Amino acid sequence: MGFFITFEGIEGCGKTTQIRRAAHWLSSTGRDVVVTREPGGCPIADDIRAILLDARNSAMVPLAELLLYAAARAQHVSEVISPALAAGKVVLCDRFTDSTLAYQGYGRDLDRGLIGHLNALAAGAVKPDLTVILDCPVETGLSRAMARINSTSAAREERFERESRLFHERIRDGFLALAAAEPNRFAVVDGSRGVEETGVAIQELLARRLAGR
């Protein structure tokens, strides 16, 4: 069986950059690595992602948002994550079920029991072996996120970046609460440091957790 690693955190925490670095390092050690993301990761889920992250859909109600995430995840797990793990690969995923708990549970204040049930339906038996939370102050993350959005000519995925600072503070608190509740699965890494320093910390973490596998 493979090894499933998820990267979590607020907007602009540096997940995407660090996943690329981690994938490069893991591949250099001879491991077969799959990099994917949520929402998205396969054509159907990518179509749902476009709906979820488009700022023009600001009228979307929280329950509809939650159900779309669950639908995208069900397809993604079935089409990408489960087959890769069954093939013995290391899967690195940019967001997974913990983001739904943090954003829709802590951020939107939807029922966390309901979210847990939907996460279980969508993901089945798939659960991360390790979850890396890149933690940084909200103002740092949002500043980075908007700089990234403003620098690209691609579709502007900014529906969440337009939310209030308080919303993002609740999300950060949610991630840290989840980490405190499952210390064996989660590792909190300071994402406010430079790319290189953060990358070294993650590489050392992965080396420890994958030792002997």
From TrEMBL:
EC number(s) stated in the UniProt entry for this protein: 2.7.4.9
GO biological process: dTDP biosynthetic process; dTTP biosynthetic process; dUDP biosynthetic process
InterPro entries hit by this protein: P-loop_NTPase (IPR027417), Thymidylate_kin-like_dom (IPR039430), Thymidylate_kin_CS (IPR018095), Thymidylate_kinase (IPR018094)
Top-tier EC class: transferase
One Gene Ontology molecular-function label: dTMP kinase activity
PROSITE patterns: THYMIDYLATE_KINASE
Keywords recorded for this protein, A-Z: ATP-binding, Kinase, Nucleotide biosynthesis, Nucleotide-binding, Transferase
Source domain of life: Bacteria
Protein name in UniProt: Thymidylate kinase
Family assignment from sequence similarity: Belongs to the thymidylate kinase family.
